[in-house]
Amino acid sequence: KKAKEKGVSLLLPTDVVIADKFAADANSKVVPASDIPDGWMGLDIGADSIKTFSEALDTTKTVIWNGPMGVFEFDKFSLGTTSIAKKLAELSGKGVTTIIGGGDSVAAVEKVGVAEKMSHISTGGGASLELLEGKTLPGVLALDEAVPVTV
After folding, report:
1. Which of 12, 54, 64, 110 is 20 to 30 A from residue 118's alpha carbon, by CA?
2. What would you give as a GO molecular function for this chain, any one (predicted)?
């Protein structure tokens, strides 16, 4: 609602890969995001969502990625994360600033083999988001309050 009021486009998955258990060998299928049956869980975005997100990324100048698209540690549920990581690597090569924030996202781009193509990587996911929110980080505050010492 808030995004709509501000004229901001908010993209959410339209289809998801669901599983009957949280395991690499789980039964899986693709369903609309609004139709996840009881007892099943969404573990990745589906092909339509990958296409939509990739097309939206084509219009960006800066991307901040915090959090994988799915449970990329399980091959069956890694396509969304792998696809977006490769898309960001492609965009980096075209001059788009790509910032990867958070340990899981960093692990994902490393697993895909595109980490070195990103503009910036930070393992401090929560701290990165707080900095973007304009909050003062404790380490930065300590520097501001430091007393100069002559050695």
Report:
1. 12
2. ADP binding
